[in-house]
UniProtKB/TrEMBL annotation:
InterPro entries hit by this protein: Acyl_CoA_acyltransferase (IPR016181), GNAT_dom (IPR000182), NatB_acetyltransferase_subunit (IPR051646)
GO terms, molecular function: protein-N-terminal amino-acid acetyltransferase activity
A Gene Ontology cellular-component term: NatB complex
SUPFAM superfamilies named in the record: Acyl-CoA N-acyltransferases (Nat)
Protein name: N-acetyltransferase domain-containing protein
Cited PANTHER family: N-ALPHA-ACETYLTRANSFERASE 20
UniProt keyword list: Acyltransferase, Transferase
Amino acid sequence: EAEDGRETMTTIRRFCCDDLLRFASVNLDHLTETFNMSFYMTYLARWPDYFHTAVNPGDRVMGYIMGKVEGQGESWHGHVTAVSVASEFRRQKLAKTLMHLLEEISDKM
């Protein structure tokens, strides 16, 4: 629950192509590295299980995490490529939640 009594809810789901047109507000931060569309599409196509977004009840993108699997032979691991949260949604442990999700996915894979 928010400090002003409003109930808040965040949905974390797999990133989809439509999100590429809706996540610009997250990438406006000067500390967030922005990639070209083909880079995001490659991750979406090759590692869809490692690409998630957090959205608010109004379906606004609050943040995202993108990662991949890398390694050789028996030595495979998950790699975080980017994690970013829009400035107005920070201080809610959203990045931490996204990191834990990626870690769980890496362990299962």
